[in-house]
Design goal:
Shape: globular
Order of helices and strands: HEHHEHEE
Number of helices: 4
Strand content: 5-15%
Helix content: 40-55%
Number of strands: 4
Structural class: mainly alpha
Radius of gyration: 13 Å
Distance between the termini: 37 Å
Length: 91
């Protein structure tokens, strides 16, 4: 695990977690972390490290959290799993 994350990445984590909490009332750690990782590919940060940052931010907010796998991300219309587009519309 790295400890020298950029300010941009940390700000993105805080913003995404706050938005997810305000919008849905719960933070899906895996889904939020994958979106952040894809927006910050130039940072070259592992998904597990981003998940750790998202979890810490969600805990600071006192948000409810869930750990649903990436199968949910694959169903989103704008999904890119492993760099490949392939999302399907939600029913």
């Amino acid at each position: 695990m790295r400890y020298d994350y950029s300010t941009r990445l940390r700000d993105d984590v805080q913003s995404a977690v706050t938005t997810a909490f305000r919008t849905y009332g719960i933070v899906n750690i895996t889904a939020v972390a994958e979106r952040i990782r894809l927006r910050n590919l130039d940072e070259n940060v592992a998904l597990e490290d981003v998940e750790h940052l998202v979890l810490a931010a969600a805990q600071l907010l006192g948000a409810a959290i869930e750990f649903e796998g990436l199968t949910m991300i694959d169903r989103l219309p704008d999904a890119h799993v492993n760099g490949r587009p392939g999302g399907r519309p939600l029913p």
